[in-house]
Design brief:
It is a single chain. Helix 4 packs across helix 8. The termini are far apart. Helix content is 46%, strand content 0%. By secondary structure, the protein is an all-alpha fold. The protein has one domain. The protein has eight helices and no strands.
Length: 136
């Protein structure tokens, strides 16, 4: 078997570890269902809990782009701690990437959208603020 196929399969397996029971039962992908932040121990409107449940698997707990699910991805997940990046991107573009996925803003299609946030603009805005707070 080709090494690239093995790495992609391993990455998919790592991503599936982050899925909660609702996602597995519905056949949804990571980032595609509601209730995940609650399963992570925080309220559904808690941006830190939502980030931990949906984003940290690839972007890492501190946002450095070093999560276990991102290790097999090319390009690597965004490092939210890089101050230079923060100066080049608008909040609305970050929000669009979070809600609609990377491809919606011309970035990697490996970044899944979170359609459950379409009806929760305050939480999406809070996630943008949470990411901005990771800047070093």
């Amino acid at each position: 078997m080709d090494l690239k196929v093995v790495l992609v399969a391993c990455g998919a397996l790592l991503l599936s570890v982050g899925c909660n029971k609702e996602e597995k039962a519905s056949g949804g992908a990571v980032g595609a269902t509601t209730g995940a932040a609650t399963a992570a121990g925080g309220g559904s409107d808690d941006p830190a809990a939502y980030y931990k449940m949906k984003c940290a698997v690839c972007h890492g707990d501190s946002g450095a782009g070093d999560g276990p699910g991102g290790s097999a991805l090319t390009p690597k997940p965004r490092n939210f701690t890089e101050a230079a990046w923060h100066g080049t991107v608008k909040d609305e573009d970050i929000k669009k990437a979070i809600v609609e996925g990377g491809a919606a803003v011309g970035k990697s299609a490996a970044m899944p959208g979170n359609p459950d946030l379409r009806g929760k603009p305050a939480l999406a805005d809070a996630l943008v603020k949470h990411l901005r707070g990771m800047k070093k």
